[in-house]
Amino acid sequence: QVQLVESGGGSVQSGGSLRLSCSVSGTTAGFGLMGWFRQAPGKEREGVAAINSDGNTRYTDSVKGRFTISQDNAKNTLYLHMNSLKPEDTAMYYCAARASSYYPSFIRYNYNYWGQGTQVTVSS
User: Fold this and answer.
1) Which positions ≥6 away from 108 have C-beta within 8 Å?
2) N or C: which end of the chain has fewer CB within 10 A?
3) Taking residues 31-42, what's their average pLDDT?
C-alpha cells in the first residue's frame, strides 16, 4: 500500500526558511507526477509546486523565486524548499502523487495518492 508521509513543518518568523519532506513507502516504481498543495483555514486547497518524471516543474505565482521542489529518487523522497516565508504561506501542506506520467498539474483529481499534511505557520 502506497503511503506518503510529510514532515518538516513548523513555526517560523517571516523571512525564515523551512524544508518539507515527503517520504514514500509501499512502492519502488516511482511516480509520473508529484506535487505539493496547501490549504489555509477557510480556503480551498491550492497547488503550490509540482514536478513530473521528465523533471518539468511548475509553481504557483505567489511562491515563484522563493520555493523549490525537488526529489531524491534514491531516497524515495520529495522536498519543498521554502525561503523568504511570509505570513500568507501559513497553511497545512500536503504531498500528492500520481502513478502515471502527466504534465505538472495543480488539479487535485489528477493525483492518486495524498499524505496527511504538515502544518507551516509563519508569524510576522
Assistant:
1) 37, 45, 47, 96
2) N
3) 96
